[in-house]
Each structure stands twice: as structure tokens, then as C-alpha cells.
């Protein structure tokens, strides 16, 4: 360009007329840069895949020798005595599932109600701040939940628990258990876990409620429905799959939560009696591993804990994958 | 977007009297009960939040306000001839920040590049697989991440544990957090900006680096800060991987290193009847929660005040 | 400067869908060529093949030839990125980079392609903004964000940005459709001015606009939805508007459909 100001790109661009050639090796136009950058992006994605695969493989390969030496059945025995080569996971599996189920039974109704509050009831000025407050619950480190649960809540919960046993003790779940003092039971661990998973379940549920079609809501209201009837006919059915997948994700979190459970839940002495009661102590997979971490020595002992970790990994993998499938299905329907 | 349905709800006021009476009393009652229950659920959920904050602040603030808390480690504690009442937590605060920084240095590039792959490059099966794995990774329990690094680091390679091992375990937990939030931010960048850049003859990678990333920069910072906060407060992998030390260790790659969670865990058994240990535990809990909340808050504020403008 | 474009038997596909079929045309250098036609007739799609922007959409590809003077834009050795430096584009909605100032927006193309000399860049800012009739309005606030300008000013900023890289051809995809009438006039004046230096192709829905600014007009149509778009006829603008040779063109221009 012969410009009036005399400025030209001629000195700046490689070609003498100041025109980059259309042909060439592409070095000037960044084809090489494109390849490198795309390679780095793809590589990072592959690292993510590799992380998950490696977690599975490493745990598997180090668990196998220990399971091979197991003197009891890994999947059906209640005995976990590492020094005696007895690795049975039943007690841990029960405690893990029981604490998590208690957590979700409490958290899900609350989360649904809070999500309704945030999307349908809260005035606009409050809604954003209220959602942030709920999110703050997720920011509190789990070790703090553990300290709070053990030192502050457990002594108070002991009375509540005792009262429940008095009234509902005839139900096996609420049977009184001797030897586990101070309210440090599966039930309390479940309650604290429910607070910890509440934000994630709420956030996901809120998202689907927000997507409930305005037209349906208005149609319901136009038919003379009360607000609650509108919610029951136009919002809740729409959010059903969302609630299910949110529950699964919450369950995934609860199954793997470690320190809060470690601090709150009393370990059971070896050889204690089996009971269905939620007022029992115990160890989850996670808390058992954490509790024994200081005694890890390379070898079969550690291998047993790795095997327990593998079971936990598989459990959370399945639960999370299922949640994902539910979400994908839902997307396929709405799109 | 939240839609305020109150504005379109028919109001059963006087001038609609006839209509309002058309509703049976039972329906109105149910409606009111539902409102009360839903408001109640929200208010009840705030109780633990307030209770936890009150517990930690009321017990942990006073040791924190002492200058020694920030200036001293606990060297000498336990040895004869030393002051056993040192409440310093400098070693643990520095350790926590160093481990989390080490994590961030590795995790943020991987997470951001993965998000770039998913939004800018990924198509079909590969993208779906990676996206699925990010979800799975976000569900991996932190204790499993710790166990995994232990299985590699100690059992497989036979190396000595150090702070960097903890950082590596936390990478697994940080990547999905940062990746997901970066992905959301990149999706918000209007396609028109990418096209404008391509039309100027700018190659794709420069378009991403110079146009797409700067436009979503604050969002990525927010995501990274939230990820940082998450791993700074994480305890479980440290119980396996970080051998506690009462000395200040400024080398992430050698020797035992303290962190606030392991400081708590170490002093916990001595708490009964030892006010100094109790101070250390609650002080560390308070420091940790404030650190995490402040970083979280900064991240959210950045996200709030610098939204992407199309 | 300003090069001739020769298109021969061009088919445009998105994956398996054929969007445009069998276009052959010549665009004269240093003139304004307008593409008109009903929505979905493929005129914008075709426009985007002239600088290979359609390849940005996954699955976008062509069959046939597009020659820029004597170079085939789709030859195997040609880099699409280099093509876009030679054939610039202005879009429907003004899209200045939100993170950049007015000045940085104008020289974004140069900077991102590695020009660093401050003197050259400064001169280029003034020259391009003068060229886009925007200099007088923004010369006192070059460091302010480009997003703060009015819609019409933003669009002229985008034109300045496009001409700053000194392209041979400037493609404009309905550049006024998001603007008010006054801003539209300013852009049309600018187009008439720019054809002194550039070959200009403009897609428009506004037939008066095509009549006002263009030297040649091409009418695109499609038989039915789902069928590919075709070039119906192309002629001097006067001829197309006063005495089109095809019935479909006459129907469209006289407002009988579309």
C-alpha cells in the first residue's frame, strides 16, 4: 500500500512487497505453533485420562498380592486384622454405606427445599447472597467439620441419641449399643456428612430448577394453581432426573469423605458384635486408611489398605459414572 | 437466571375476593405450609455454618492474634530446656501455602490446557472420554489420591516422602475444579471474537492465547483460586504423605514438612488437659478456615466484578 | 492493490450437507460486488469460502476452484491463515476485542502477526482509522476500550482493524444489519471510498443498499429448504435492478417473495 503517511509494513513483514506469501511451510503463519499448541492441549487431556487409569491400575496391582495372601474372604468377612493377614471388608463397607445413606437421606430433602427457595421463593436481592452462603458450607475444610463434630456436637448429640433409642429402640437401626460413648456414632457422622454434601446437591438441583420452562409454570398458574401446586406440577417433575444425579454425586462425596468421619466416628474394638444399629461406631474405608497411615510399611500390610482404597475407588467411580449417565440422558431428552 | 414467580402469581387480594374464595382452604393451607417449610429449610441450613464459624473463631482467634503464631515454628518443643508453650504455627502456614502452590504450578496448566482442548479442539469420542474422566477425577476421594501417590512414590519407587509428593496427590483434586470452571468461562467467549481474529489472518493458537484467554482471564483466575482454596484445606492425603515436622522447612523437595491440617492432627491427642495443644489445634483450624474463606471470597469477588462482556 | 477473484464450479458442504452448488463468477478488482438473495440461500456461506472462513466450522469444505488473480486459494500448499491475511472480513455484528483499547483493536492483526515496531504501528493506527472515517471521532480516546463506542463506530473500528493488515479483498457480511440508519449511511459512504483501494464483496439483505453501493450484483436463491443455494444471475447492478434476465430475480427484486 502506498500510503499518504509513508508508513509501510514492508520493513516489518518478511516478503519484500510487504505481502506474506500464500504458500510456504507455514512457519510465518503459525502452522507449527498451531500443531504444538493443539498437541499440548490434547496432551493435557490425555494426562487427565492417564491419571484416572493410573490410579486404578496402581491400586489394582498393589492390592492383588495382599488379597492373594488373605486368610479370610475379602468380600464377605468382617475381620480386618492386618498383622494376622485377615482382610475382610464387610464391616467397613457397612459403615461407609450407612454413614453415606444417612447423609443423603437428610441432605436431599433439604437440598431440594433450599434449591426451591433459591429459585422460586427468595426475593431477587437475597437469592444470590443466599446461594453464596450455602456454597460457603463447601468451602469449610473437612478437618474443621471433624473438630466441630467431635468436640462440639457429639456431646450434645449423645442426649438426642439416647432419647431416640428410648423411643424407637425397637427398630434395629436405633438399637442402643453399649461401649460407644459420647455420641460418636454412625448417625452423627451421617448428619455431619449431610451438611458437607448439602452444597453440591443444592447447586446441581438449583441448576435444573432454573431450567424448568417458564411456559409450564405460567400455564400452571394461569389454571389457578397455588404456588406450591405450580411447583409440584411444573418444577419438581422437570427436575427429577437432576435431583437423582445430584444425589449420586453427593453420595460419591460422602462415600470418600475422610477426616470428618475419622474424627467423629469411634473405632470399634476388635471382635465386637455385629449390629444394624446406627448408634454404633466403626470405620469407613477412608477413615480406616487414614487412621492407619502412620503404620504403613511397604508390603502386604499396606497392600491390604490399598485393596480397601481400591474398593472405595471403584464404588465412587460407579456412583459418579452413573450420575453422569443420568445427566447425559436428560440432556439427550431436552435437546 | 432465576425467575421471580411472585410477580406473576395471582394475588388473592380483596378485589379478587370471589376468585380467592374459589380455592379451598386446604389448598391455601398446603401452599402456606410449603412456603414455611422451604424458608425453614434454608434458615436451618445456616445454623451449622454460623455454629462452625463461631466455634472456630471463639476458640482459635486468640492464639492467632499473638505475633508468635506467625513468627515462630515449634523447634525445641519437647526437648529439655525449651519453652514447651510455644504456640507458633509459621512452619505449618508456610508448609500449607508451599504445598498448595506446588500443586497449583502443576495443576493449573494441565487444567487450563485440558479445558482449551475440550472447548476449542475436542470433537467426538476423544472429547467425550476426556470430559467423562474430568468428572470421574472430580469424584475421586482425596484419600484415594493420597494412597495412589503413596503406591507410586514409596511402594513402587521407594523414594523418601517430601512435600512435593503431597502436592502431586493434590494435583488430582485440583485439576477437575480448575478445568470445569475454565471450561465454563471459555464457553462464554463469543464465537464472533474468534472469527474476527481468524479473519485477520491470526493462527488459531494465537487467537486462543491472545484473544480467548484474555477475555476469560478473570474467570480462570477465579477458578484457580477456588481450586487453590480447596487443596489448601485438604487433609486426607497429607495424613498419608506429609510427615509432620515441627520445624520450618522451606524446601518442598526434601524432608518432612508441616501443614496446618497435620499440625492439628499431631496436637489433637494431647488436647485433653493441655491448653497449649488446644490453642494450637483451634488456632490452626481458625487460620485454615480464614485462609480458605478469604481466598474463596477473593476468587468470587473477581468473578463477580469482571464478568465477560460479549 | 485489489485483486480479481475467479470462482469456478464451487460446491460448499457442511459435513454431508451441500449448502451451495455450482457457483461460477468473477469479482472485478477495485469494485463493489453485492450478494443479494433470500435468507438461507447460501450467500453468506459462499462469501465465507472466499477467505476460507467456512473451514472454522467443523465439517466445512468445498469442491471447485477459487482463484485470487493467478493463485488457487484451495491449492494443497496454501495456508488458510495466509489467505485470511490477504482477504479480510467484516462481520454482521460489530465485534471489537473487549479486552483491548481502540488503538490495540486497530493493530490487533498486525501485532498478533508479529509486527512490533512502534512507529509503524502508530502510523498504521492513524492511517486505518482515517481510512475508516473514524479518526476524528476517536483520536482523543485511543486508549479507551473499543466496547465503549456506539454500534456504528464499533463497526467502523472493525473495518479499520480489517484494513490495517492491508488485505487485497474485503468481505463484508451484512455489515449494517445491526446498525441504525445514520450509521448505515456512514458505512455505505465508507464502502464507496474503500473501493478505490480494495476489492469489496458485500452481502446484504437491503436491496436499496445493494443498488446504492455496488457496481455488480449477484442474486442467489434456493429451490426449497434443504436444497443447496445457487447463483441465479450476476450482472451490472443497473442491469439487475432495471432489467434482470431471470424471472426469479425480478420476483425477488420487486418484492414478490423473500
Question: Can you walk me through this structure?
Answer:
The complex is a heterotrimer of chains A (335), B (310) and C (258). Chain A is an all-alpha fold. Chain A folds into two domains: 22-65; 69-334, MetI-like (MetI-like fold), CATH 1.10.3720. Chain A has ten helices and two strands; from the N terminus they run αββααααααααα. Chain A has a two-stranded antiparallel sheet. In chain A, a hairpin with a 4-residue loop joins strand 1 and strand 2 (86-87). In chain A, helix 2 runs antiparallel to helix 7 (227-256), helix 5 (186-211) packs across helix 7 and helix 9 (285-292) runs antiparallel to helix 10 (300-334). Chain A is globular and about 70 Å long. Chain B has 310 residues and is mostly helical. Chain B has helices at 17-22, 25-65, 67-71, 90-121, 124-139, 142-156, 163-188, 191-199, 204-215, 217-232, 236-241, 260-267, 275-305. In chain B, helix 2 (25-65) packs across helix 13 (275-305) and helix 12 (260-267) runs antiparallel to helix 13. The radius of gyration of chain B is 26 Å and the shape is globular. Mean pLDDT of chain B is 87; it is low at 1-20. With 258 residues, chain C is an alpha/beta fold. Chain C has eleven helices and ten strands. In chain C, helix 5 packs across helix 7 and helix 7 (151-164) runs parallel beside helix 8. Chain C is globular and about 55 Å long. The relative contact order of chain C is 0.19. The mean pLDDT of chain C is 91. Chains in contact: A-B, A-C, B-C. The interface between A and B is large, with 99 and 103 residues.
Keywords:
A: 335 residues, mainly alpha, MetI-like fold, 2 domains, globular, C: 258 residues, alpha/beta, Rossmann fold, 6-stranded mixed beta sheet, 4-stranded antiparallel beta sheet
- For the secondary structure, the number of strands of chain C is 10
The outline of chain C comes out as globular
Main sheet overview of chain B: none
State the CATH architecture of the domain at 5-95 and 169-253 in chain C.
3-Layer(aba) Sandwich
Order of helices and strands of chain C: EEEHEEHEHHHHHEHEHEEHH
Which of globular, elongated, flat, extended, rod-shaped describes the shape of chain B? globular
Helix content of chain B: over 70%
Q: What oligomeric assembly is this protein in?
A: heterotrimer
Largest sheet, strands/sense/barrel of chain C? 6 strands, mixed
CATH fold label of the domain at 5-95 and 169-253 in chain C: Rossmann fold
Task: Please give the count of helices of chain C.
Answer: 11
Q: How many individual helices of chain B?
A: 13
Uncertain segments of chain C are: none
Nearest-integer average pLDDT of chain B: 87
**Overall radius of gyration of chain C:** 18 Å
Which whole number gives the mean pLDDT of chain C?
91
Structural class of chain C: alpha/beta
The separation of the N and C termini of chain C measures 36 Å
Kindly provide the name of the CATH class of the domain at 5-95 and 169-253 in chain C: Alpha Beta
Subcellular location (chain B): Cell membrane
GO cellular component, one term (chain B): plasma membrane
Membrane topology (chain B): Multi-pass membrane protein
Pfam family, one (chain B): BPD_transp_1
